[in-house]
Design brief:
The protein is α+β, with helices and mostly antiparallel strands. The protein has 2 domains: about 110 residues, Aminotransferase class 4, branched-chain amino acid transferase, N-terminal domain (D-amino Acid Aminotransferase, Chain A, domain 1), CATH 3.30.470.10; about 160 residues, Alpha-Beta Barrel (D-amino Acid Aminotransferase, Chain A, domain 2), CATH 3.20.10.10. It contains 8 helices and 16 strands. The strands form 2 sheets. Strands 7, 8, 9, 10, 11, 12, 13, 14 and 15 form a 9-stranded mixed sheet that branches. A 7-stranded antiparallel sheet has the order 2-1-6-5-3-4-16. Strand 11, helix 6 and strand 12 form a beta-alpha-beta unit. The structure holds 3-[O-phosphonopyridoxyl]--amino-benzoic acid.
Length: about 290
């Protein structure tokens, strides 16, 4: 396996970074998770744009143009001869000394991994996924805005631990005042009275690329769409619930906090979104050849 590291493609065991890297010492950095389907990178421009927006939000200047970053992603995929890949792109503040001061870091560290993705088991897509509401609340947008895809994922990891302890795979994260934001690595949608509804990202969620794709699909499918503040009770009462994310794609929810959604099985409209989503991953994307 070849890893892109600071401008070079190096072997996996040579892909090492300093213990003084502030990405490791302080979680000071940003990342993206991108997918390719049969040699088409899905929504590559959108992921690169979000990476640069996240970097700007933490005042991290990426020493590379977006065009060169796109080239680096494609080179990494080609070097590994991977048609279907999960691409992890990371930019850290770089190597500094002990102490928070980002000015002490030299150049940012940039690396790109192209690997296989481990998906949720197929049965969750067929039968739906059971999730819970996490005890852990979402970071305040005024403390660390969840819009920033930063290397600080502890808030999400603590909620993920809540999910695991409850015997589930995902957890809904609420704001301090009980509004639904998203899950630990996925955005959340409901279908109510035939309409698609999701919380606004300003409540404290990542502006998911898959989320945007689903909203776009709703328009094409003639399904109404609304961004609305939701409480967990609105989810319990919804006709259908599903999650979206690069890794998960669209996954139906069968149960929340042990309450059945749609009688405990994936809903019909969710199914249609899943089918439409699959279609666009087959035709949309940046092509690369090996
Ligand atoms: N919310 C959070 C907190 C996320 O981290 C999403 C929503 C979905 O966004 P996209 O743009 O993917 O539709 C994410 C995405 C990983 C991994 O490497 C993380 C994500 C996606 C895929 C893999 O663990 N986060």
């Amino acid at each position: 396996m070849k890893i892109y590291l600071n401008g070079e493609l190096v072997d996996r065991d040579k892909a090492v970074i300093s213990v003084f890297d502030h990405g490791l010492l302080y979680g000071d950095g940003v990342f993206e998770g991108i997918r390719s389907y049969d040699s088409l990178v899905f929504r590559l421009k959108e992921h690169i744009d979000r990476l640069y927006r996240s970097a700007e939000a933490i005042e991290l200047k990426i020493p590379m143009t977006k065009t060169d970053m796109i080239k680096a992603v494609l080179e990494t995929l080609k070097a590994n001869r991977m048609k279907d890949a999960y691409i992890r792109l990371v930019v850290t503040r770089g190597t500094g000394d002990l102490g928070l001061d980002p000015r002490k870091c030299g150049v940012p560290t940039i690396f790109i991994i192209a690997d296989k993705i481990s998906l949720y088991p197929e049965e969750f897509y067929r039968n739906g996924l059971a999730i819970i509401t996490a005890r852990t609340r979402r970071n305040l947008t005024t403390a660390l805005n969840p819009k920033i895809k930063s290397l600080n994922y502890l808030n999400n990891i603590l909620a993920k631990i809540d999910a695991i302890k409850a015997g589930t795979e995902e957890a809904i994260m609420l704001t301090y005042n009980d509004y639904v934001t998203e899950c630990t690595g996925d955005n959340i949608f409901v279908i109510s009275c035939g309409k698609l509804v999701t919380p606004p990202v300003d409540v404290g969620a990542l502006e998911g690329i898959t989320r945007d794709v689903v909203i776009g699909l709703a328009g094409k499918m003639g399904i109404g769409f609304e961004e609305k503040m939701l409480k967990v009770e609105d989810l319990y009462a919804a006709d259908e619930v599903f999650l979206t994310g690069t890794a998960a794609e669209i996954i139906p929810i069968s149960m929340i906090d042990k309450r059945r959604i749609n009688g405990g099985k994936p809903g019909e409209i969710t199914r249609r979104f899943m089918e439409e989503f699959k279609k666009i991953t087959k035709v949309d994307g940046v092509k690369y050849e090996m």
